[in-house]
Design brief:
The chain has 15 helices and 12 strands. It has about 450 residues and is α+β, with helices and mostly antiparallel strands. It has 2 domains: about 220 residues, B family DNA polymerase, palm domain (Palm domain of DNA polymerase); about 120 residues, B family DNA polymerase, thumb domain (Topoisomerase I, Chain A, domain 4, Orthogonal Bundle), CATH 1.10.132.60. The strands form 3 sheets. Strands 1-5-6-2-7-8-9 form a 7-stranded antiparallel beta sheet. A 3-stranded antiparallel beta sheet has the order 10-11-12. Strands 3-4 form a two-stranded antiparallel sheet. It starts with 5 loop residues before the first helix and ends in a 9-residue tail after the last helix.
Length: about 450
């Protein structure tokens, strides 16, 4: 039975064939159990429960996990914890910092990643609720001017313990324990800045994100002085263009650069802040070709949006981040067009004739089976406004009230695929599906989609 027919089919089986309904329910339970077994989901949840002190059905309550660890420490230190109802939210911390992307098509780009950046900042600068309270004792000052105690703190030591457990888990191949520890450690930053945490104070998360921003920018400056160009950065990662010839042994050079940066930070944090650096940069990946696209209609780089040709064990693999290929609401035509276009660009092929041929084939109906949009109804159909987005209008035509709507754009507007749709609006697909994808990279080549398809050599719009 299909997902849409399931409720009515179950009701029918209950009335007419209870044995078959039992068989269906049993098979359903077996399938779910097999999914849990294959993914290791239950083991992961159990490991998270064990290290956080939360019951399985409470694992999303990270403030409670923080209390589970922190309250006993507070009480043993003869301190009184605040009541969560007395917390007054004064400001929200900024998110992770993004280094402005420099649009372009590049050769030989590596990604350097700060391993567990926020937990390691907490360790290095002793960022902690009690440490902030006693910041006048053995004062440590962060790059942004926030003060903490070098000797009175609990959270940095707990993270040290978790880090050791994670290393041990990795050594014995316990991936679920390792992941559970990672989830818990990464929650501390957000918890200390949330209104559900009794230890909330705006300086705690702001000190962490402010230090993270400083580390990215100062790392960028260091690399620039070494002759490297940082073309992008996001929260805990730096995208670095290698020097001429270094791409031939990208892994070795990437690991060398990461090691040099780690040494730099150990010395600088000791000299300037009198703290031990727990920061660890590591070489993450290498792109033989890489593209950062500009914002649509502008020259500024688009954040969290790039593509690259990865080298993994000698094999090439195209990776998209934040682009149409990874989004579910773009057509198959658009996704395939994007993959082929970027592969051609990365291989330095001329794309003009190829683009004209794709447009010609669209107009001739050669891609009709790839023009279907798929979008889910996220609320009851009656909750949408009368006009509504295209998938809602299509759903109303067949009285569909839930699930995923499959539809095409015709000259009459959106039409569900269940109804006749012989008057497809090819111009819509060319303008809304092909053109945005093409122009995001063609501008970097001094070309545009319109100039290519309106070339006097061919005119497919007559």
């Amino acid at each position: 039975m299909t997902s849409e027919d399931r409720p009515s089919e179950i009701d029918k089986l209950f009335e007419e064939d209870k044995a078959k309904l039992c068989e269906y329910n049993l098979n359903d339970a077996v399938l779910v159990s097999e999914i849990f077994s294959k993914t290791g989901l239950i083991d992961l949840l159990v490991k998270r429960s064990q290290i956080s002190g939360l019951l399985l059905d409470q694992l999303g309550m990270m403030s409670a996990a923080f209390d589970h660890f922190y309250l006993p420490k507070i009480h043993r230190a003869e301190l009184v914890a605040p009541n969560v109802n007395d917390v007054i939210i004064s400001e929200h911390a900024a998110g992770g910092y993004v280094v402005e992307p420099i649009p372009g098509i590049y050769h030989d780009v590596i990604v350097l990643d700060f391993k567990s950046l926020y937990p390691s900042i907490i360790q290095s600068f002793k960022i902690d609720p009690v440490s902030r309270l006693f910041s006048h004792i053995g004062t440590i000052t962060t790059p942004e001017g926030y003060k903490f105690s070098a000797s009175l703190h609990f959270l940095p030591g707990f993270i040290n313990e978790l880090m050791k457990k994670r290393i041990e888990a990795s050594k014995v191949g316990d991936v679920h324990l390792s992941q559970a520890i990672k989830i818990l450690m990464n929650s501390f930053y957000g918890v200390m800045g949330s209104n559900g945490c009794r230890f909330y104070h705006p300086h705690l998360p702001t000190a962490i994100t402010g230090t993270g921003k400083w580390l990215l920018l100062q790392s960028k400056d260091y690399l620039h002085k070494q002759g490297y160009e940082v073309i992008y950065g996001d929260t805990d990662s730096l995208f670095v263009k290698l020097k001429e010839g270094e791409g031939d042994d990208a892994k070795t050079n990437g690991e060398r650069i990461a090691s040099e940066l780690n040494d730099y930070w150990k010395k600088r944090l000791k000299d300037e802040f009198s703290v031990t650096s727990f920061l660890e940069l590591e070489f993450e990946k290498y792109y033989s070709r890489f593209v950062l696209t500009p914002l649509r209609g502008g020259e500024q780089g688009a954040k969290k949006r790039y593509a690259g040709l990865l080298k993994i064990n000698g094999q090439e693999e195209l990776e998209f981040v934040g682009m149409e290929f990874v989004r579910s609401d773009w057509t198959k035509l658009a996704k395939e067009f994007q993959v082929q276009l970027y592969m051609k660009v990365f291989n330095d092929e001329d794309v003009r004739d190829w683009i004209r041929n794709v447009v010609n084939k669209v107009n001739r109906g050669g891609y009709d089976d790839k023009l279907v949009y798929r979008k889910r109804l996220r609320k009851e159909i009656d909750e949408y406004q009368k006009s509504g987005p295209p998938h809602v209008r299509a759903a109303r035509m067949i009285n569909k009230t839930s699930g995923t709507v499959e539809y095409v754009i015709t000259k009459r507007g959106p039409v569900p695929i269940e109804l006749t749709h012989g008057d497809l609006d090819y111009q819509h697909y060319i303008e809304k599906q092909l053109k945005p994808i093409a122009d995001s990279v063609l501008g970097l080549l001094g070309e545009s989609f319109d100039s290519i398809i309106k070339s006097p050599q061919l005119d497919f719009f007559d």
